[in-house]
Amino acid sequence: MHIPDGYLSPQTYVPLYGASVAIWSVALRKLKKELSVKQVPYLSMAAAFSFLIMMFNVPIPGGTTGHAVGGAIIAILLGPWTAVVAVSVVLIIQAIVFGDGGVTAIGANCFNMAVVMPFVSYWVFKLSKGSSTGKGRLYFSAFLSGYAGLVASAVFAGIEFGIQPLIAAAPDGSPLYAPYPLSIALPAMALGHMLFLGPVEGLITMLLAGYFFEDVSAHARGAATPAMAKSRKALWIGIGILALLTPLGIFLPKLLNAGAAWGEWGPDELRKLVGYVPDGIRRLGELWKAPLPDYGFGGNGSVSETVSYMISGIVGLAVTVAAVYLLSKILTGKGIKGTKVRPSFVDKGLHHVANVIKTTYIQWETASRKGLLQGLDARVKVLFLAVFLVAVSLKKDVTSELLIAAFVLILAAASRVGFVSYYKRVLFLGFFFGFLVALPASLNVVTNGTVVVPVITLPKAYDFWVYHIPQNIGFTSEGMRGVAVLTLRVVNSVSLSLLVLYTTPFHEVIKALKLLRVPDTFLMVINLTYKYIFIFAKTVEDMHLAKKSRMVGDTSDSDARKWVAGRIALVFKKTQLRCEDIFRAMVSRGFSGEVKMYGFRKLAAKDYLAGFVILTAGVAAIWM
C-alpha cells in the first residue's frame, strides 16, 4: 500500500496532502493537550513497532507481496489520534530515507494507513467489544478491528489507483499515471487484503491486545505501574528481536518467487505488465533519490543483501524513535524525566550564570585531584599543548588524528578528568565547528570524487561561469574524508586545550603563558577579569534569589525586564566601585604602573623528564 511517485495525479495527491495536513494539525493539538511524559515511551514503541512490522513482506497468491501496518493495535492501546501521529512519522521516514512510498504520495499513504486504518480499527473494536470484559470477546474484537482497518485502508488505496485513468489521460486515451481502471485496481487491492493480509493484521492485533489488555486503562491515563514497566521492557526486547528478524521480509518472497506488492512496481516491471510506462510514472518515478533506497546499501550477494536489510531496519528504528522522542518533547514542552515548566527569561539567564560558577568549581576541583598531569608544572603543560597543537594542525590523514585522540583520551583517564562534562564540551564543539562547517564542502559541487551518498538529481547539469553543477549531487568519499580530518582536528585541539585547563589552576595557566612571551599587563588583566567575573556572577545570583524569596506568584515579563535593567545598572556601578577599590589597594601596596608577576617554582626532575618526553613525542608525531 506504499504508493510510489508517479502513480497518482496532482488532482489526487494534492487534496490528500491537504486532508492529511489538516488531520495532523488536529492530532498534534490533541496530543499536546493529552500526552503525558509517562506515555512518551509507549508512543516511541508504537512507531518503532509499526516501522518494523511493515518490513515483513508476506507473499500472497498472484506473485505479489504485502505487509501488516500495526495501526490497529496502536489505536486500541493509545487512541486513534496517537496512532495518526505514530504511523505518519513512520511513513514519512520510510518515504524520505528508504524510498518506500513516494514523496508526492506521502499525503495519500498517510491518509490511507495513518488515518483511515486507525479510526476504522478503533471504532470497530469499541463497537464490537462493547462493555464486555470477557477474553473471548476481547480476542474477537481485536482480530476484527485489525482486519477491518487494513481492508478499509486497502479499499481507499484501490479507489485512488483506479480513478487515475478517468481523471488523467493522454489525448490518445492512455493513462498518464496508474494504468489500471477501477474495475481492476479495487478488486486487486481489496481481495488480497481481505483474504490474506487482513487476517495477518487481525492476528497480530489480537495477540498484542490480549497481552496488553489488563493495562489498557493504565495506558490511557499515563500511569506507571510495575506491571506496565515490565511489559514495556518486554516490548522493547520484542522490538529488538523483530529488528533482527527483518531479513525474513526478503527471504520469504524470494523463497516463493513473489514480486513487488500490487501497485508498487518499478518502470521496468510496469512495462512488462502493460507494455508501456505512463508519462507521469516516467517523469515522477525518479523524483526523489532516497539515501538508503529499498532498505539496502547496494549489496549484490544474498548475504550482503540480508545484512543490508537488517542494518536498514536498525537505522530506521533509531531514526523513528528519535523523531518521535523529539516530537513528543516539543509537544509536551519537557524531557522524559521532567515536568512542564515555562521558565522566564530571567530564570534562564540566571541558570546560565549558575552554570558558569558550576563550571569554574568543576575545573578547580579537577585541578586539585591527584592525577598524571596535575603533578606536572604548568610550564610543562603549556609546552605540551603548543607542541601537540602544531602536530594536530599538520596531520592530513584520519589515522594520525585518531591516534592523537586516543593518546589524549589515555591522558585524560590518567588525570582523572570527569569524562561526561569533559567530552560533552569536546564533542559539542567538534560537531558544530568541525563537522557542520565542513560538511557542505564534501558535496561533489565543491569536492570532485566518487559520490557515496546521493542527495538530489537535477533535470540536467548546469554551468555558471567557472562553476559546474553536476546532474547528480551528493557527498563524495574524498570530501567525507576531509570532513573527518577537519572534525578530528577540532576535537583534538579542543580536547588538548580543555585537558590543560582542567588539570591546572587558572592562575598557574596565566603565569605559564609567559613562556609564549605574552605581555605581563595582558596576563594581569586576564587574571583579574577571570577572578572577579565569578564574584559578580555570584552577586547577580544572590540578588535574584533574594528577590524570588520575597515575592509570591509570577512576575510579568514587563516587570521582569524593568528589574533586569535596574540590576544591570546596579552591577555596573558595583563593578566600577570595585575597580576603584582594587586600584587604591594596589597603589597602597606600592603599585607604580609596572606589572610584576609571581615567579615560578624550581622545576623538579619529573618536570624535566616530562618535558623531554613531550618534545620527543611531539617531534615524532610531526615527523611521522
CATH architecture of the domain at 10-219 and 226-332: Orthogonal Bundle
Report how far the terminal alpha carbons are from each other: 58 Å
User: What topology, given as strand order, has the largest sheet?
Assistant: 1-2
- What fold name goes in the CATH topology slot of the domain at 10-219 and 226-332? Arp2/3 complex 21 kDa subunit ARPC3
Share in helix: 55-70%
**In terms of per-residue confidence, which ranges show pLDDT below 50 for 5 or more consecutive residues?**
215-230, 298-303, 335-341
Describe the structure.
- The protein has 624 residues and is mostly helical.
- The protein has a domain at 10-219 and 226-332: Orthogonal Bundle (Arp2/3 complex 21 kDa subunit ARPC3), CATH 1.10.1760.20.
- It is 68% helix and 4% strand.
- It has helices spanning 10-34, 40-53, 71-78, 80-98, 106-129, 135-162, 164-167, 182-212, 216-221, 226-245, 248-255, 267-274, 279-284, 302-332, 345-367, 378-394, 398-414, 419-438, 477-502, 506-512, 520-549, 557-588, 605-623; strands at 58-60, 64-66, 451-457, 462-464, 467-469, 472-476.
- It has a two-stranded antiparallel sheet. A two-stranded antiparallel ribbon has the order 3-6.
- A hairpin with a 2-residue loop joins strand 4 and strand 5 (467-469).
- Helix 2 packs across helix 4 (80-98), helix 3 crosses helix 6 (135-162) and helix 6 (135-162) runs antiparallel to helix 8 (182-212).
- The two termini are 58 Å apart.
- The model is unreliable at 215-230, 298-303 and 335-341 (pLDDT under 50).
